[in-house]
Design a protein that fits this description.
By secondary structure, this protein is an alpha+beta fold. It has 9 helices and 19 strands. The strands form 4 sheets. Strands 1-2-5-4-3-6 form a 6-stranded antiparallel barrel. Strands 14-15-16-17-19-18 form a 6-stranded mixed β-sheet, sandwiched between helices. A 4-stranded antiparallel β-sheet has the order 7-8-13-12. Strand 7 and strand 8 (130-135) form a beta hairpin. Helix 2 packs across helix 3 (141-157) and helix 6 packs across helix 7 (310-317). Zinc ion binds at residues 103, 107, 192, 202, 204, 206. Residues 103, 107, 192, 202, 204, 206 line the site of zinc ion (ZN).
Length: 389
Amino acid sequence: MTDDTPVFWSAPYQKEICAKIVEVNETELRFDRALFYPGGGGQPHDLGTMSYQEYTLPIIEVYTIEGEIWHKIDKKETIDFQVDEDVKLELNWNRRYNLMRSHTAQHLLSYYIREMHECETIKANFDEGKIEIETSKKLNLNDVIRVLEESNHRLEENADVISIIVNQEAFQEEYKRKIRGKTSDEKKVRMIQLGDFDLVCCGGTHVNKMAEVRGIFLETVKNRVIKLYTGGKGINYTNRQRANLHALEEITEKKDSKLIELVNNKLKENKNLEEGNILLLKLLFQKIHTWSEKIQNYSVILLDIPTLDRITVQAALKEVREKIFVAIIGKNAILYLISTNERIKANEVIDKIKEKTRAKGGGNEGFAQMSVKDIEEPLQLVREVISSL
Ligand SMILES: [Zn+2]
């Protein structure tokens, strides 16, 4: 291994190092040794601090420009950084270690996604204890659960995670044909091998032993995106989910599989209720002539039923056989006017109400509607309008 191998490759567990400043550009610095991962391949850059003279300053961004790694410092004081001066660099280790765990878990998941479902990983992103994988085709929930079962089983076997760095010639000769996914044309090729079964080109940071991942847990599977948790974050998430389910079980007194059945039945019941609503209104309309009032010579029904919506009103409308005029205030303070009497037109009544108020609405001779949110006693207004016809 040559000297210019970054520390994050050769010693990913190194939390701090001494280094020298080799280039300064105001708040951006370059060092002779690379402790901080500059980001790439879905893994975010590291964070941490730099100690210089009596100051300890946060490193807030790390990035590569033309192959050189730069560190952006959060500098409030006026400090002149000098080239060749010594600094101490220290990682936010907790964050880095969680990223190493997530990244290693992703290698394993992508391996099984391909092995079990002939499906490639198109994109992967990590955060502390979180993974998001986009796959080349849609996997269903059971496909993903099977991948997780195999992966978690592998974690328990605690295989080694091995970092291999070779030059391009050796890569071509010995490794290229064994690589899963994209190959590399860099002069120096970095590979990660899981146990004796998976080999990929990767420049990120990983744990040394698979068991360090401490479990992979599913959050969601939507379209082609799988979201997961690892380690402590996953354990907490799963326990919280279990607690939610437990609370539901207490309310409903049903065990989880029975709970799904219950929810399904409730959904069906709801549909029945809506259909029942229409049926009720239909019956009402069939007997409508028995309780209509006479205004002028017209048979008029005025109703205030705030649970009715337009679909229900229109479905029931088909049942009206009498020559009648019906006004209903339904859901969201919408006034529905239905006329089966050609001498009194629903849209004309609406227009007359519009002349007296600022309300908006319209329709045709048989059916019209308007919002009566800001109108006091709208049914009384309908009565007045019909009286004046
Ligand atoms: Zn990797």
